[in-house]
Amino acid sequence: MARKPKNQNLQQARREKNDEFYTQLTDIELELRHYWRYFKGKVVYCNCDDPYISSFFRYFSLQFEHLGLRWLIATCYKNQDAGQFSHNGSGPGVYLEYAGDKNGNCVPDVDEIGVRPLSGDGDFRSDESIELLKQADIVVTNPPFSLFREYVAQLVEYKKKFLIIGSLNAIKYKEIFKLIVADKLWLGYHVGNMSFVQPGGATSTPQRVCWYTNLPTRKRNEELILYKKYTPEEYPTYANYNAIEVSKTKDIPIDYNGLMGVPISFIDKYNPKQFEIIGSSGQLGQSMSEVAPKGAYVAGGPCFYLANGGGTYRRLYERLVIKRRTA
Q1: Which residues of 145-162 are buried (b: 16+ CB within 10 A; e: fewer)?
Q2: Which of 171, 186, 185, 179 is nearest to 281 (CA)?
Q3: Distances (CA, A) of 163 to 5, 166, 189, 190
Q4: What is the spatial distance between Cα 37 and Cα 130, in angstroms, rounded to a whole number?
Q5: Separation of alpha carbons 178 and 184, rounded Å
Q6: What distances in angstroms separate CA 258 from CA 4, 261, 279, 306, one per listed residue?
Q7: What is the pLDDT of residues 100-125, one digit of tens each?
Q8: Which residues have CB under 8 Å from 315's CB, separation 6+?
Q9: Cα–Cα distance between 194 and 201 in angstroms, integer?
Q10: Are strands 138-141 and 43-46 parallel, antiparallel or unpaired?
Q11: CB neighbour class for 130 (10 Å; exposed up to 12, middle 13-18, buried from 19)
C-alpha cells in the first residue's frame, strides 16, 4: 500500500476550503509560556475559534488573572450551510467575551462569560469581526490554512501583535516571505509536528506546522554557533547563481562572508543581527536554459542546481540565500 503524505489532512482541507482543525490545549500551553510578560493589561482576540470549544478561549479565560488580561474575545466562522461545520451549524454567529473573575473563585463561570450575537457569520473578514479586531492588542489563534495569506495581511494592515499557527510551508509564500525579510514576522518557539482535533473528536496525524509571531522572542537573539571552515570542495557554487551550497544549517562556515544557500529550516535559527536574508532560490535562480543544454538537467520551477558530474546538473529543494552580517 502506498504511503500517504503526513500533511494529507491539511492538503485536503485546503482543497475543500474546510479548515476545521482545533488546537490542543497542551500545545497552546507549551508555546504561550514564553510570552506571558507581553499580555498584562492587554485585550486578546481569538477570531478563528469556536468560542464554545476553543482551547484558546479556555486557556486565556483560565489564565486571565495570572496574565493580567484586560479583556478576552473569541469569534468563529459559522457557515450558512448546515453540516459543513458540524460543531457550529448554520445561521448567525456569536462572540464570547470575558472580563475576569467576579465571584472570587478564580474560575470562568458561565454567568461571567458574555455571549453576544453577531448579525453575520463571524468570518474574520466581516465588518463586525474587523471592529472587534480594532479593539484588540494581541491576536492568538489557529487561522484557516487555506486563507493564511489573507489572514496575515489583515493583521499587518491593522498593525496588530499576533501569535498564530500556520503550515511550515507558508514560509515559502511570497507574501509571508516578504514579511520575514522585512523583519515584520518570525517564527515562535515550536517548529515541527503537531496534531489537531478534528470534528467528531478524532486526532489528526502529525502536521508540519509552526507558530508565527511578531512578539519578541529570546531565540531571535541567540547566535548560531559556527565551527566549520570553508573549502570549495565541501561548499560548491551553484550553476545558476553565485552562492555556495550549505546543505545543513549547522554547517554554515565560520569564515565565509559571501552569499550562501541554506535550507528553509534555517528560519528556525535565524538571528537578524547575525545574518541577512537576501531572497529565495525561487526568486534568484537564473533559468537553467541559459546555463546548460536541454536534457542536462531536470526541469522544474526556479531553483538552484549543482553540477552533478558528466555534464549533468542536480536540482535542489528550495533554498534561502543568506549572508553573514559583519561588524
Answers
A1: bbbbeebbebbeeeebbb
A2: 171
A3: 27, 10, 11, 12
A4: 26
A5: 9
A6: 40, 10, 14, 17
A7: 988 888 788 888 899 888 988 889 99
A8: 297, 298, 300, 303, 304, 305
A9: 16
A10: parallel
A11: middle
* N residues, the chain: 327
298: left (phi > 0), else alpha (psi -120 to 50), else beta? beta
- The C-alpha angle with vertex 260 and arms to 258 and 262, in degrees rounded to 5, equals 160
Domains of the chain, CATH where assigned:
8-217 (3.40.50), 244-324 (no CATH)
Query: What gap in Å lies between CA 242 and CA 61, rounded to an integer?
Result: 53
Can you tell me the distance from the alpha carbon of 38 to that of 253, in angstroms, rounded to the nearest whole number?
36
Residues 224-271 pLDDT 10s: 999 999 999 999 999 999 999 999 999 999 999 999 999 999 999 999
78 Cβ contact partners less than 8 Å away, ≥ 6 residues apart: 85, 88, 89, 90, 91, 92, 93, 94, 121, 122
What letter represents residue 165's amino acid?
I
Other CB atoms within a 10 A radius of the CB of residue 67 amount to: 21
